[in-house]
Write a structure and sequence with these properties.
With 90 residues, the chain is an all-alpha fold. It is globular and about 35 Å long.
Length: 90
C-alpha cells in the first residue's frame, strides 16, 4: 500500500455495509471515502483475503486519504487517534 507504488483499486458495491467514521466524529463528505476504503481493507484482512501484516498500512492509507480529501489537521488527528484506540488497529 505504498502510496508511490499503489496501482490497485478498491471497488465497493452499492449497499455495502460499512462502519463509517470512528470515535468522536461524524461522517462528512470528506471522510466518507477514507472510511469506506478503511472498512473494506479491514474486512478483507478479517476474511483472510489480505495479510494481517497490512493492518498498519491500511490505517496509514486511511490517514492519507483524509489528508487528500482536505480534512483539517486537528480533526484528522482526532479521527486517527480514534481509529488507533478503537480496536481496529494493530
Amino acid at each position: 500500500m505504498d502510496r508511490q507504488r499503489r496501482g490497485g483499486l478498491v471497488f465497493a458495491r452499492e449497499g455495502r455495509v460499512r462502519m463509517g467514521a470512528s470515535g468522536p466524529t461524524i461522517d462528512t463528505k470528506n471522510t466518507q471515502t477514507a472510511s469506506l476504503v478503511h472498512d473494506a481493507l479491514w474486512q478483507l484482512i478479517a476474511a483472510g483475503k489480505l495479510s494481517k501484516d497490512l493492518r498498519d498500512a491500511s490505517n496509514d492509507e486511511f490517514h492519507a486519504i483524509l489528508i487528500d480529501k482536505g480534512v483539517r489537521s486537528g480533526r484528522e488527528r482526532v479521527i486517527k487517534f480514534a481509529v488507533a484506540k478503537s480496536g481496529t488497529s494493530g
